[in-house]
Amino acid sequence: MKTIPTFGQGTFRLKGQIVIDSVKAGLDVGYRLIDTAQIYGNEAEVGQAIAESGIARTDLFLTTKIWTDNLAQDKLIASLKDSLTKLRTDHVDLALIHWPSPDNAVPVAEFMGALAEAKAQGLTRLIGVSNFTTGLLQQAIDAVGAAAIATNQIELHPYLQNRKVAEFARSHGIPITSYMTLAYGKALQDPVIQQIAQRHGATPAQVTLAWALQLGYAVIPSSTKRANLESNLRAQALRLTDEEMARIAGLDRGERLVDPEGLAPVWN
Ligand SMILES: NC(=O)c1ccc[n+]([C@@H]2O[C@H](COP(=O)([O-])OP(=O)(O)OC[C@H]3O[C@@H](n4cnc5c(N)ncnc54)[C@H](OP(=O)(O)O)[C@@H]3O)[C@@H](O)[C@H]2O)c1
Fold first, then answer.
1. What pTM, to 2 d.p., does this model score?
2. Is 31 considered catalytic here?
3. In a domain, 211, yes or no
4. Residue nearest to atom 41 of ligand 1 (CA)
């Protein structure tokens, strides 16, 4: 069974030619995991960029996310097939539930069951969840078992370290994917991170990504710039000291950047 690569490329907010150029540049500099979602409205462009890159499908890891409108048992698989058409592939590597069903309109057991069925049909290699709290994660575990959940993709950066969810997932052997690891660029202005970066002759983005990787999280930073995509990848070679890790741990202030009304669950 494939496991999730620890370094991938995000595509949130990127549309049209911008996402095509970003994905092509990412693939060119060495990214092999592309993270998209039905709601991003860019699956077709991601599919186009991959096709134009000439990279073999077997060398790539594609993640998409099922939007909340498509969680019902009679919609989930059809929506995933639609995503596959746009992405120009017969399977994704990872299909995630993007957000839990608002007001629990579709029970967790129903959409996790449909997602497991999609996997059984070969439409995705792995399944997982995103934006799940400990309570929701427990319900997902009850539905399909912890071993079937390849990741919980959550907002996690120096200002929102999400330790309760991360610890709960770890105790069940479920890997965490950190989204917005750079706090959408905000962490790069942080004096502590800048100081550590200077010490290593690294960029603040590399330090932030290295911090998350060193905690055992997968990361999927996005960039519209080839130079940033390329330098971010090099975070994998950076090793922070225990003291530097502790200083970044001290930056947590519970600052959540993604909290959409009507969609977000009651957070831990
Ligand atoms: N599951 C979910 O609900 C969810 C929610 C949000 C995001 N995500 C996923 O997570 C991915 C990452 O999150 P994100 O894209 O919102 O935020 P992010 O990766 O934390 O930050 C991206 C921002 O940082 C800048 N940046 C990147 N590398 C840089 C560098 N080396 N130097 C300076 N600036 C740099 C980019 O600007 P430039 O373009 O100028 O480089 C961009 O503005 C998304 O693309 C998406 O795939 C998932």
1. 0.98
2. no
3. no
4. 223
